[in-house]
Amino acid sequence: MRVLGIESSCDETGLALYDSEAGLLAHALHSQVAMHADYGGVVPELASRDHVRRILPLMNQVLEEAGVDRAGIDGVAYTAGPGLIGALLVGASVGRSLAWGLDVPAVGVHHMEGHLLAPLLEADPPEFPFVALLVSGGHSMLVRVEGVGRYALLGDSLDDAAGEAFDKTAKLLELGYPGGPAVARLAEQGDPTRFRFPRPMTDRPGLDFSFSGLKTFTLNTWQAHRDEEQARADIARAFQDAVVDTLLIKCRRALDETGLDRLVVAGGVGANRALRQGLETMLEKRGGRVYFPRLEFCTDNGAMIAFAGCLRLQAGQVETPAIEVRARWPLEELPAV
């Protein structure tokens, strides 16, 4: 079964063609980073308009690269949520219309399920069950995964997600947009011993996350030292160390509580080098293993949507002709496959 995947939940337009027999045939991505950089963050209306411009040319590019025409598409998958409502509607409208015109089934995919399953696209995928850490601009969550659609939420963001905290810290340090990579680059020049920031919610039981207080602590430290040349890099280092340590502590707790030794990490923050190294070291010491998608699939992409959609279409899940999207959509509401 060949499934065309469409990702348009935020500021990246991703298209991909996945074949249940041959694997990923082709994928293409357009990032809107340059367009939103002047605003210091994503402008929803601009994002929606750009998706309108990009989806069909990217689809044609993917089909040409795969050597498949539109008649060779057996199903369409599109991101139905969570995300920016206008951006979601663009992808869903195109996907549902394309499926209607080709007389093939369509399925709406949960954006975070796409991220969660992205490591299964690799040559050596993890086996079920495992613990998943999903860290992005909008989410920081720990999930026990027994199978596709069989998810138990272990911990979630109570306020700012890790990626959002990175972006806001970059903005207050005047590092530009997107913030995560900018903070990570600057942190490499920072002194790890100068500042020590709090590790939020690690001094109490539980697996929930909260990064808003850490953001405020960073702001106060910056205001007290902004006249010092080296302070910006030292603060970036202290902030990143605090986020990474917090994620490591929560992952260790989740593995202890579930008794599992496999950890999957997905989402944009999963590309952070310090986080990857820390998790790899921790899992190696425990005799377990951590799995990451390839770097290009850490951020939003069409491949993860095509893959997740293919699994659900093969299981017989299809959408009605109505175009429905959800800006908020609890992962636990998904049906099991």
Helix vs. strand class: alpha/beta
Total individual domains: 2
Helices and strands, in order, run as EEEHHEHEHEEEHHHHEHEH
State the end-to-end CA separation: 17 Å
Helix residue percentage:
40-55%
CATH topology type of the largest domain: Nucleotidyltransferase, domain 5
Largest sheet: 5 strands, mixed
- Mean of all residue-level pLDDT scores: 95
How much strand? 15-25%
- Shape field: globular
Poorly predicted ranges: none
Pfam families: TsaD
Binding site for Fe cation: 111, 115, 300
Subcellular location: Cytoplasm
GO biological process, one term: proteolysis
What does this entry show, briefly?
The protein has 337 residues and is an alpha/beta fold. 42% of the residues lie in helices and 19% in strands. The protein folds into 2 domains: 2-117 and 297-333, 2-Layer Sandwich (Nucleotidyltransferase, domain 5), CATH 3.30.420.40; 128-292, ATPase, nucleotide binding domain (Nucleotidyltransferase, domain 5), CATH 3.30.420.40.
Q: What is the secondary structure topology, with strand pairs?
A:
Blueprint: E1 2-7, E2 12-19, E3 23-31, H1 33-37, H2 44-66, E4 75-81, H3 85-102, E5 106-110, H4 111-117, E6 130-135, E7 140-147, E8 150-155, H5 162-172, H6 179-187, H7 212-225, H8 231-258, E9 262-266, H9 273-286, E10 289-291, H10 302-314
Parallel strand pairs: 1-4, 4-5, 6-9, 9-10
Antiparallel strand pairs: 1-2, 2-3, 6-7, 7-8
